[in-house]
Structures are given as C-alpha cells and as structure tokens.
C-alpha cells in the first residue's frame, strides 16, 4: 500500500482529526479513519435533550468534508497501531502502512468503574446518547405519573443537561431532579460565584443538589450515594467526563493504562517521532482543559508539523490560545467565563449560537454552493427555535439589556 508520496494516516475524524485532514492539500496523500459517518458538534449535543436542535443540525458527512480536501475517508475503526512497523490495522484486519500517523481519538465515557453505570445510566457523549435522553424525557413528561431524574456530575455537561431539562419540563408539577456532584461545588473549575448563581436560580424549580457526594452503585431505578441515601430514578444521566481511550496504551502512546498520550511541545508522541497526537487524547504540559477549540488548533498544527517533518524542516510548538468558556443553562441563563470574571445573561445564548455556526461553517466551508445553502438553512432552522421564542417573550427581552457581572 506504500505509494510514491508519503502516506499520512489520521485516526479519528472529529474536531482534531478533521482540522488536521482539512489542513492538508489535495497534493498530500492522506487517509482518514473513523468508525462513524458523521462529524458531531459535541459542544451543542445538550440541545438534543430538549429538542431545541435535531441530530442532523449537529452532524456533517465526514466523507464529503474529507473528499472536498482531496483525501480518502474510510469508515472503519482502527483496532491497532503498530508504531515500530509504521502500520495501522483496521478492525476487519486490513493493514495500512503510513509514513506519519496522526492520532485524534478523543476520550471515552468515564464510569470510574462504578458498578451498574453502563447498564443503568445514559451517557452524554454523542448525538445518539443525547437524542435518546430527550426521547425518554419526553415520554416521562407526557405521562400522568410523578417522575424522578438523576444527573450524575456537576460539571459543564451536567449543568447544560439540567438546563435543557428545565427548558423542556421546568414547569412540570410531576418532575423531581437530583444532581449528584462529587466536587464541593458546581463547575468546580470555574469561579465560585457560578455555583451560587445557579443554585439561586434553581430555587424556583424542583431540584436537589448533592455536592461532595459520590455515586457508589447504580441499579434498576436506584442510585446509591456515598452519604447512605438511595435515590429512586426513572432516568439517570451520566456526565462523569472523559477517560483516556485504551487504544492509547495499547499503541504504546501512554506510559500506563488509563493515561492520556504524553506529547512533546510539537505534539509528537513522547515515544515515537512519526506519531502525532492531537485533541483530547493528547496530554500536554502544563495540562489543558479538554476543549474543542484546543482540539481544532492542535489538529491544524500537527498537519503543519507533519509536512515540516517530511521535508526535514524545524517544527513549531503548540501554544494554547486562551478563549472564554460559554456555559448554557437552558433558557434560564448563559454564562461567559473569562478567567475569574463571569458575565451572566440569557442574551449570551446568541453568542453560543454564533460559536456553533462558526464550528459548522469551519468544516462545511461556505465557499462552495452546497456549503452556503447548508449554512443558510441551518441558520434559519436553529435561529427560529432559539432566538425567536426569546425575543417574543417580554421578560427575556428586558433581560437582553441586562448583562450581570458576577
Ligand atoms: C457534552 C459536551 C459538551 C462540550 N462542550 C464544549 C464547549 O462548550 N466548548 C468546547 O470547546 N468544547 C466542549 N466540549 C469538548 C469538545 O467536544 C472536545 O474537546 C472535542 O470534541 C475534542 O475533539 P477530539 O477530536 O480530540 O475528540 P472527539 O471529538 O472525541 O473525536 C474523537 C473521534 O475519534 C474517533 N475514534 C475513536 N477511536 C477510534 C479508533 N480506534 N479508530 C477510528 N476512529 C476512532 C471517534 O469516533 C471520534 O469521532 C464538550 C464535550 C462534550 C461531550
């Protein structure tokens, strides 16, 4: 399978992998592997819980994006990476020889090994996961019986899922929500004021928060907590964050099982110079939060470094850019977190919507006709659902003028 020009293999085609693939030109010989057909805009998957967006609003065809850059997409899982043989092997046993490999496999659902998590809770990691949560939530809300929802995790994903649950059924008299958080406060990596603000906004809703509390076991309709309580549940949402993919250790890219892949400042693997690691899978020094914008920047840089390596030129080091975080809390509030400063206003939801359109347009380039049509259709469809209900509500219109600095 060796061809005359160097063969570049990319494993994983979401934020980092696609950013890398689209940074190579048609003259480069690039093959991209991912087991699923569609790019997914993960920062917005919580919006599937309330039905604000549909899965198709958040997905793009990997085949089309990669073909447009002049490369080959193979919808296959890479089962093995053998750096010493310069080879990847797909799960059907086909070997592919590479000159340089880019690993962008992201992470997996972190269950912390707690019994019952895989069986009795729904993860929060893909469009399919969140669409299923939305489907079950709608069924519960349509019934005449009281129902209980347990969200495990008080980080960004946990709060964004809670916000969407309130958007859909915040007025329900039958719903009770429990949010279990192992950390001492909500969004523990952000300034403390957010914890206080969210809890004060939640006084109006049937929500109980359990901070400093771990889940010890999940059973059918039951969540056991470290404080001895047992919660009845009709829907358990697991937002425990991401853990390293076992693929990294298996491929010799992590020093130990359960670790992310250690990389040099050039994003080359610490253990092999012809393997680059980009996105969530990479463990840079000092450690970085696992964010889509870092993954995109890393993906672009590894493509440039890959070309430099093949031409024998000096490579560049990864310098993370500092960007603020936008945290959506349904139609109740949106927060902009910039270092220790936090801005709060429902109007900031339009900024989050802008970031979503930017990401989708980045991969579905509006420079070709179908990209422009998709961009316009996506904008109309999603703006109609998100912005119009806000501007037709007097309360929210007044809120638009009011941005609080917490
Ligand atoms: C609910 C949620 C909300 C988020 N909100 C934000 C936010 O507001 N802002 C922000 O910046 N970031 C946010 N993030 C984080 C952001 O989505 C990640 O940082 C980003 O997706 C990382 O990109 P990646 O390409 O490294 O990995 P991923 O996006 O996880 O992609 C990895 C890809 O690799 C593929 N893959 C894995 N193993 C293999 C294999 N063996 N063979 C072939 N393919 C493989 C997978 O199918 C997947 O497509 C959020 C994440 C989640 C889950």
TrEMBL record:
It is an enzyme of class 1 (oxidoreductase). Residues 7-293 form the FAD/NAD(P)-binding domain. Its cofactor is FAD. It holds the Pfam family Pyr_redox_2. The keyword Oxidoreductase applies. One of its GO terms (molecular function) is oxidoreductase activity. This is NAD(P)/FAD-dependent oxidoreductase. It comes from candidate division CSSED10-310 bacterium. Belongs to the NADH dehydrogenase family. It comes from the Bacteria.
